[in-house]
């Protein structure tokens, strides 16, 4: 297994008191798998991603990546945040190579690889433009390429499409899915959108209300073989949606 959580628990200490975010979260992911995490708002989804990324420290339990205990941030893991966080004062090229520069790994080979990614995903002609000159979908592709530039093996995506309108979301999630598959990455997506989770994942992990624990895990079965938009058209989609919906404690 490339990611393994064992009984992960974490409580935030804040001036207003303690907030128990994770309680006994356990699950594992195989290399190349695409999993989604869904759960009620505020249940601890981002905290969980933070723990895997080595940004949050657990109080109990463990996170293993490649069989090694996660003790802090690592180049093996790339994070794609809610907003694309492209800097307007830098060109697209300046943005997608930023991670390499920050990590001191901006070598000619890596720059060449970034050039290839931009060309492959239809962004080569926009390398000298500014982020505001690109569509929402193009910006998301840039954000993903910026993350891929540092060559992580695992991608953690925290509601990366939440700022996009519904129609754009469908296309962008489909593009991002294709890129992640073609690049052979292991991906873990946090989303509040059950349809999005079904359309992109091999498995969907449902978390309980806070403190988060794994409530159920759904394998997408035959849907796994289909790309996102075709999954949405499949007769199996609605049944899958209902099973996940019933597990989610959205209202109480
Ligand atoms: P989700 O991503 O599922 O919406 P989060 O992981 O962001 O949930 O947060 C889980 C809980 O922990 C929430 O109640 C949130 O308010 C709280 N929380 C998140 N970050 C902090 C922090 N730095 N200090 C205190 N409480 C926090």
**Helix content estimate:** 25-40%
Helix/strand order, N-terminal first: EEEHEEEHHHHEHEHEEHH
Q: Tally the helices: what do you get?
A: 9
C-alpha geometry? globular
Total beta-strand segments? 10
- Roughly what fraction of the amino acids lie in strands? 25-35%
Provide the residue-averaged pLDDT: 94
Category from helices, strands and their pairing? alpha/beta
N-to-C terminal Cα separation, in Å? 35 Å
Radius of gyration (CA) equals 18 Å
Low-confidence stretches: none
**Main pleated sheet:** 6 strands, mixed
Give the neighbour order of strands across the main sheet: 6-7-8-3-9-10
Which hetero ligands occur in this complex? adenosine-5'-diphosphate
In short:
The protein is α/β, with parallel strands linked by helices and 252 residues long. The chain has helices at 45-53, 92-96, 98-102, 108-120, 136-149, 166-182, 194-200, 228-233, 236-247; strands spanning 3-14, 17-29, 34-38, 60-65, 68-69, 77-80, 154-158, 186-190, 203-207, 214-219. The mean pLDDT is 94.
């Amino acid at each position: 297994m490339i990611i393994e959580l064992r009984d992960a628990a974490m409580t935030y200490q804040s001036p207003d008191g303690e907030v128990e975010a994770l309680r006994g979260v356990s699950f594992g992911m195989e290399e190349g798998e695409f999993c989604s995490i869904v759960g009620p708002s505020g249940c601890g989804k981002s905290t969980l991603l933070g723990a895997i990324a080595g940004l949050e420290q657990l109080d109990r339990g463990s996170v293993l990546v490649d069989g090694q205990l996660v003790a802090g941030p690592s180049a093996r893991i790339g994070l794609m945040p809610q907003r694309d966080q492209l800097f307007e004062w830098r060109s697209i090229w300046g943005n997608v190579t930023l991670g390499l520069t920050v990590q001191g790994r901006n070598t000619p080979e890596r720059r060449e690889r970034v050039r290839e990614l931009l060309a492959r995903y239809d962004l080569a002609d926009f390398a000298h433009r500014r982020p505001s000159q690109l569509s929402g979908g193009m910006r998301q592709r840039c954000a993903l390429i910026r993350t891929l530039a540092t060559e992580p093996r695992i991608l953690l995506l925290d509601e990366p499409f939440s700022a996009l309108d519904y129609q754009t979301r469908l296309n962008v999630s489909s593009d991002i899915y294709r890129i992640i598959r073609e690049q052979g990455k292991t991906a873990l997506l946090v989303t509040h959108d059950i349809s999005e989770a079904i359309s992109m994942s091999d498995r969907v992990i449902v978390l309980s209300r806070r403190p988060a624990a794994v409530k159920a895990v759904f394998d997408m079965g035959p849907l796994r073989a289909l790309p996102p938009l075709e999954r949405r058209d499949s007769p199996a989609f609605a049944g899958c949606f209902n099973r996940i919906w019933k597990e989610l404690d959205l209202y109480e």
